[in-house]
Amino acid sequence: IRDSSKTNLNSSIMPLLDGKKSTDIGFLVYNGSYITLKNFQLTNYNKMVYGNISDHIFLENIITVHGNRNIQIVGERSHDNVILNCVGYNGGLHNFSIDGTESLVQDNLSYCDRNDNSTDYYYSVFGSDHVIRNNYSKRVGELHHYGHGLSIHTFSPGHSNATDPNKTYYNFVDGHTSVNIVKPIEFRHGGTRYNVARAVHSYGQGPGSSAAGGIMFRDNAGFNIVENSIVETGSNGTCINFTESVEIGVGLGHDNIIRNNIFKNTKSSIFVDNRNSISATGYNNKIYNNTFYNNERLFDKYLGTVGFSNCEFKNNIVYSCLLYT
Q: Cα angle vertex 282, ends 307, 131, to 5°?
């Protein structure tokens, strides 16, 4: 599945559906249960495979190329769905998106190599109790959009799928590879809590490698854990990023734990950014038992007034760092 040649469509291998740049949907599952779709190729639909308010949907070995939303299961009442060994290639908004509860997204390839309608979200995770395991995302070349590799987030207020309270809780990321993506994994919005990401690997490769980034906590996400991961960012990359972007939640993140990781060969180890007109604060964040190697700056700030309280930086190994403040 790591081979980009998987995106080459061939109707002699398995059925190929071509929407001819249609605004329609290739496969629609609405309020469905116990449905299996396997061994299909789809191209040139707005939505390739689209499920809504559905459960026990099993998608396997489906290749989607040049859509807007390639493979997406939405609806807070969706549950127990599986996306396995599929390909999302050059989806404009999403290559993969999952919502609801207790679903599995495993062994998939998300890939983009075009500037027109570049992929925004390689993987989007909404809802709770999902397992996101051993997936791969790659941005190829100096594309206009830097991309969100794996975004764990809630919906914006007013969105048709936004709930009250708006929660994305208890999701488990177990192995995720991201190549040349500025936000390889992000915990985004105040309703994104109690999620764990383990064994994430972000690195740069070939053209576009300078954009490779690290872990982002955005708009007051809290109580999340990142552990046992390796971040090798590009020349302009950041390893750990706390950001307030005036979206949902006011703050730089709180009660997050970053432990037992390796961060190396980057510009900024810990980066802080506040796009708000008022000051933004992060609190109770803990960074410990990590290794920071060959990074230009240990701490760096871009915009705005920022502050941290009751945060810990302890038992870390820091070496070959040019600037510490």
A: 155
> Average model confidence (pLDDT) for the chain?
90
- pLDDT tens digits for range 43-69: 999 999 999 999 999 999 999 999 999
Residues 6+ apart with CB under 8 A from 115: 141, 143, 144
Yes or no: say if 263 and 290 are a contact pair by the CB < 8 Å rule. Answer: yes
For residue 323, count other CB atoms closer than 10 A to its CB. Answer: 11
Strand partners, 262: 230, 291
- State whether residue 211 is helix, strand or coil: helix
Six token digits for residue 107: 């062994």
Read off the tokens for 133: 């395991």
Does 176 have pLDDT greater than 90?
yes
Could you give the CA distance from residue 308 to residue 301 in angstroms, rounded to a whole number? 12
Q: Which residue has the higher pLDDT, 22 or 124?
A: 124
For residues 171-199, average pLDDT: 95
Helices vs strands, H then E, count in the chain: 0, 31
CA 155 to chain centre: 14
Q: Is the pLDDT of residue 109 over 90?
A: yes
This model's pTM is above 0.90: yes
Phi and psi at residue 234, in whole multiples of 5°? -75, 180
DSSP symbols for 19-49:
-SS-SSEEEEEES-EEEEEEEEEEES-SEEE
Instruction: Specify the 3-state DSSP secondary structure of 208.
Output: coil
